[in-house]
# Entry
Amino acid sequence: MPRIRTKRSKPPPEGWELISEKLQEFQQRMREEELAPHTGKRKVESSWGIFKLHHQRTRYVYEMYYIKKNISRELWDYCVKEGYVDQTLAAKWRKVGYESLCCLRCIQNLDTSFGTTCICRVPKAQLEKKVVECVQCG
# Structure
């Protein structure tokens, strides 16, 4: 969740107009997801939408900086400092083999039953034809 800007906060750097509208849209969708009813869902299913939106918001700013090169380093650092971007997740995306990582919980072996990584880290070609959902992020 992004920090609340006050009068003492530094103003956003140049280029903020490029991404501010999309980030506001993500923030609105995040509020809707937080307020959505969770009746009839499993305990882990209730947070899947939040993980998905968090991933999408971080991925959007990551692509604007690293892939499309539309924003400056100064704006990237501002987004990290204000909480719009998960810096550790973006750092993993830059490593080979982690380009499509959905969340950091999927590579932590403490949360799994047998001390391995999550099922979503297994390549799709090696899985059988059945649909497999990640327990932690959907």
